[in-house]
Amino acid sequence: MSSIQAIEKAIKQLPAHELAEFRLWFATFDEALWDAQIEADANAGKLDALAAEALAEYDNGSAREL
């Protein structure tokens, strides 16, 4: 059995209150990873072209509100 399968099996066996705790923990964990990746990409300049494009659209009036 792989680690993933073992984790899936363990999660399926959690009582409802522990599953709720796990969901909260995992959401927080996943958000932290996402934030770290976005920060790393920003620091590496990977988002510069997207930011420049958005600013150019705003400056020339072609941006739209979300």
- The sequence of SSEs as H and E is HHH
Report the average pLDDT across residues. Answer: 96
Largest sheet: none
Q: Could you estimate the helical fraction of the residues in percent? A: over 70%
Task: Say how many strands there are.
Answer: 0
Topology:
Elements: H1 3-12, H2 16-43, H3 48-59
Provide an overview of this structure.
By secondary structure, the chain is mainly alpha-helical. Helices cover 76% and strands 0% of the residues. The protein has a domain at 15-59. It is elongated. The relative contact order is 0.06. The mean pLDDT is 96.
Keyphrases for this structure?
66 residues; 0% strand
Task: Write a brief caption for the model.
The chain is mostly helical.
